[in-house]
Design a protein that fits this description.
Elements lengths: L12 H4 L2 H9 L2 H14 L6 H23 L3 H5 L5 H34 L3 H18 L2 H11 L4 H7 L6 H9 L7 H14 L2 H18 L11 H32 L12 H12 L1 H34 L13 H16 L7 H27 L2 H4 L6 H23 L1
Helix pairs in contact: 2-12, 2-13, 2-15, 3-11, 3-13, 3-14, 4-11, 4-12, 4-13, 4-17, 4-19, 6-7, 6-14, 6-15, 6-16, 6-17, 7-15, 7-16, 9-13, 9-15, 11-19, 12-15, 14-15, 15-16, 17-19
């Protein structure tokens, strides 16, 4: 059996990046920015090692999700139904839908607040405009074009790299904090650690990357690896690099957000940050107008990237479980139920702006839901990727399975601590 790719002319690496890059960048949504800002403001450089520690764990579980989608030609929800009772999969997907909708509402609120900080007006109006614009692009722009929009939006996260270079930093001290961390294991520290894991390893990312592998496979007409095993070496190598680089990008941005707020806000005694907009507002008098502007625009850019991932991952999960025609390449009239879930997610997210709901508390309860569904979902994912009956010769290598189970154990511990604390 040939192990050579069917096309002897490999595409450039950047052109081959897609699901992993977009998923990793979407992980740094306004909620993630708020969490990492609070960690930096509250603990300084004390917990700056956390994004580095989370990197191999998130990379392993995302690579596993991508592998399942590419090998089987089915998304994560469809594969979960093979190893879990169907009623349990329905419960997990239902919780995912609720958590993603709450996240959409909280992200829209953060984006509107960031727009108001920059312009001085229009918080709700901008939030509505962001939601409507994102929805229209997702529904009416075919996937093969829309994916380029998402790739360009990942560039907005470089704002947080740029912010770092607007302030003075002792890089030797940063290196010591990363490789020789010193912190007090208090209740507050444990809560921060749980929060970082909760915002880093998120269920919506599992569903999105797996579904987009299937979407790309259909677009290229390559077929699943179970049907075309000769394509496996090239495709699995692509998934590895796509995920390593995508999650590396996510980790880099998280690291720089913690670093920026540590050397600015914490150094000035500002230790209580409730939202990403709070972080931008507090940064203004300390780091200057340019840093404030970059931080604020980054909130909007990453929100625009995260919104379609949140709404789309829920629609894929529901559609796979219900047996609908799914996929962003379909015209709206040919996949009405699928696009209906996306529209409803945006609609209920917008509704939250007009309800007496604190967006910060909404993000907290969204994190609780994510922690609740992550553990059984990760267990099911590990069972699928370890099943020779299901994946044949494409079960995950031993090293990847070890890292996947380690990530699952860490999330289980984080979820347990979350409820105890």
């Amino acid at each position: 059996m040939s192990t050579e790719p069917s096309d002897p002319r490999p595409r450039p690496l950047l052109a081959r990046l897609g699901p992993g890059l977009i998923t990793g960048a979407a992980d740094d949504d306004p909620g993630g920015i708020a969490t990492h800002s609070q960690v930096g403001a509250q603990f300084g450089l004390g917990l700056i090692w956390m994004p580095v520690l989370a990197y191999p764990l998130m990379t392993a579980i995302q690579a596993i999700c991508a592998r399942i989608g590419r090998v089987t030609g089915e998304g994560l929800a469809a594969n979960m139904a093979h190893v879990l009772p169907r009623w349990l999969v329905h419960v997990i997907v239902g919780l995912l839908l609720v958590a993603n909708t709450v996240n959409i509402g909280a992200n829209l609120a953060a984006m509107g607040a960031a727009a108001r900080l920059v312009l001085g007006w229009g918080e709700v109006g901008f939030a509505v405009a962001f939601a409507v614009g994102s929805l229209l692009l997702q529904v009416f722009l075919p996937y093969h074009r829309y994916v380029h929009v998402l790739k360009w939006l990942t560039m907005s996260l470089f704002a947080y790299v740029a912010v770092v270079f607007t302030v003075a930093i002792d890089w030797g001290e940063v290196a010591r904090a990363v490789f020789m961390p010193q912190f007090t294991l208090s209740r507050e520290t444990l809560i921060a650690i749980v929060a970082v894991f909760g915002t880093t390893i998120s269920p919506y990312m599992f569903f999105w990357q797996s579904a987009e592998e299937v979407e790309d496979e259909k677009l290229s007409d390559d077929g699943s690896l179970l049907d075309h095993p000769d394509k496996a070496p090239v495709e699995l190598n692509r998934i590895t690099w796509d995920t390593l680089l995508g999650m590396g990008f996510s980790t880099l941005i998280s690291f720089f957000i913690v670093l920026t707020t540590a050397v600015t806000l914490n150094a000035q005694g500002i230790t209580d940050i409730a939202s990403s907009a709070d972080a931008a507002r507090a940064l203004r008098p300390i780091a200057g107008e340019f840093a404030f502007l970059l931080f604020s625009l980054g909130i909007i850019g990453t929100g625009l990237l995260a919104l379609p991932v949140l709404a789309g991952s829920a629609a894929y999960a529901v559609g796979e479980l219900r047996g609908w025609r799914i996929g962003l390449e379909h015209r709206p009239e040919n996949a009405r139920a699928f696009y209906g879930v996306i529209a409803l997610s945006f609609g209920f997210g917008l509704l939250m702006l007009f309800l007496p709901i604190d967006p910060i508390k909404a993000l907290f309860w969204s994190a609780v839901l994510n922690g609740l569904i992550a553990v059984p979902l990760m267990i099911a994912t590990m069972l699928v990727v370890s099943s020779r009956r299901h994946l044949g010769a494409f079960v995950a290598p031993v090293g990847l399975r070890i890292m996947g189970w380690l990530a699952t154990a860490v999330m289980a511990g984080a979820a347990l601590l979350m409820f105890i604390l």
